[in-house]
Amino acid sequence: MPDFEEVYRLYFADVYKYILTICRDEATAEEVTQETFFKALTAIDSFRGDCQLRVWLCQIARNQYLSLCRDRQKFADTAPEQGGGIEARFDDREDARRLHVLLHGLPEPYKEVFSLRTFGELPFSQIGELFGKTESWARVTYFRARQKLKEEFHGT
Fold first, then answer.
1. pTM of the prediction?
2. In which element (H, E) is residue 130 found?
3. Residues 42-53: pLDDT tens digits?
4. Measuring CA to CA, which of 4, 75, 112, 150 is 20 to 30 A from 140?
């Protein structure tokens, strides 16, 4: 098994540059590169040596980037329109009371993530930091909380 610190030192810049050429956004490239090395660390024992380590890491990075794009697209598709969405219901008193009751019944971490995003207006990156997780984790958790609230509110 290769020394992971050495792998990180040798290939971080290559993986970062590879993703940067695909996404053309430094913040996204950095996030994907970090996630790539985290994933590689957990899967380093499965590296069989069928290809160069750099290629294996770039394959992981590409998959991480595509996954992030799919997640972002899901959130873009379900983002509340101006004046719409479950969050807008908090403006109506009765709907707000009902939603607060439903929100109170959500299990953690859904309740806290939804509250931090909706009422605290925190960015997903900060929510992830608070929980010791990634921005992607915060996005997915918020999305799931939002879905649960919508389902319960509409009785589906």
1. 0.48
2. helix 124-131
3. 887 788 878 888
4. 4
